[in-house]
Design goal:
Layout: H1 4-34, H2 42-46, E1 58-59, E2 64-68, E3 74-78, E4 83-88, H3 90-96, E5 100-103, E6 109-118, E7 124-132, E8 137-138, E9 148-153, E10 160-164, E11 167-171, E12 179-180, E13 190-192, H4 197-204, E14 210-212, E15 218-225, E16 231-236, E17 244-249, E18 259-266, E19 273-276, H5 280-283, E20 287-294, E21 299-306, E22 311-318, E23 326-333
Bound molecules: 2-acetamido-2-deoxy-beta-D-glucopyranose (3 copies).
Protein name: Dipeptidylpeptidase IV N-terminal domain-containing protein
Transmembrane segments: 7-29
Domain Dipeptidylpeptidase IV N-terminal: 104-338
Amino acid sequence: MVSIAKVLLAVLGVAVVVVLIAVPTVIFLKEEEGSNMRTFTLFDVFNYTLKPASYNMKWISDYEYLHKETDGSIFLYNVNTNMFEEFLNRDKFIARDASDYQLSADRRYVAFMSNYNKVWRHSFTASYSLYDRQSDKDITPSDIPDVVQYFAWAPTGNKLAYVWDNNVYLKTSPESPREQITFNGEPNKILNGIPDWVYEEEMFSSNRGVWWSPGGKYLAYAEFNDTLVHNIEYSWFGEDQYPSTISIPYPKAGTPNPVVKLFVVDTDNTTIVTEVVVPASFSKLEHYLASVTWVTDNRIAVQWLKRQQNHLILQIYDISGSSRNPVEHLELTSTGWIGRVC
Ligand SMILES: *[C@@H]1O[C@H](CO)[C@@H](O)[C@H](O)[C@H]1NC(C)=O
Ligand SMILES: *[C@@H]1O[C@H](CO)[C@@H](O)[C@H](O)[C@H]1NC(C)=O
Ligand SMILES: *[C@@H]1O[C@H](CO)[C@@H](O)[C@H](O)[C@H]1NC(C)=O
């Protein structure tokens, strides 16, 4: 005979199981019903609604950085003292319709950037207005045209360089008049201070073709001659009734590459421009300017690469001496393929 106690125990066991299943289910269903959380789709990823958390910062010393707050103001943070203070009010950005800024190394001047227009992967044009933090005044006229292709403060002080209409300009201070360094710039033919399409995309991965020496005495700049490079053309279906034709010098295998030259201008006397000459063994061959790095304020390290990309020369030139002779030379050859030495 089955005892009453055993039956009761079995019933209790079944009840416990039912409760264990039912309660979480009810809670779960309830949550789903009452929640205002929405599911997400791939579109949320593509339009950047869903993205990893990030934090924007520009280091301006070993222990200080600038951070753009969500309201658009810039704050200066000191990581030694954990103190922070407002550095640029958001109204300064709103007044100039500025989307970004660059601070001079001496922290006195701000170049506010507006009218950003994307060109290729890295390149863009923009307008820059100069603001003096000390006097709380704009520098007018700034002497900087509206459609600038590249802008860079010197690594010390407040000299600046920019590229406009494919020519390089510099100002030894925001208040000084601009000095034009190159004169032969021409769209899709001669580009000074900015890379052409192929150098931007395949060599530098950057929109930069000027390099300040660390102390700001010299500015190196590249000149690209794309005159003989064949063009690729395509239709651009923009806003107008008829599409326009975009034409880009685009070398393919067996056709001419851009011809590159490297120059250095002395900012103390901008009529003194020195060509940093490619090593003789490459001068008659098609070659690339692979990288430019200042070693000191007088010495510049340049990597030149044969078009075949099986032979690279890294050469250090002394700019201050009268001869501009190479002072160090390293050659790499390969039966395979060499990229840049980083
Ligand atoms: C992004 O896409 C999602 C899904 O289509 C949409 O709900 C959301 O509002 C979009 N966000 C923005 C900022 O466009
Ligand atoms: C650019 O290359 C073309 C074709 O070789 C040449 O005629 C022209 O003089 C070059 N321009 C410069 C500034 O070197
Ligand atoms: C700049 O350099 C040129 C060429 O060396 C020289 O003739 C000129 O006097 C210099 N100008 C100044 C202001 O030093």
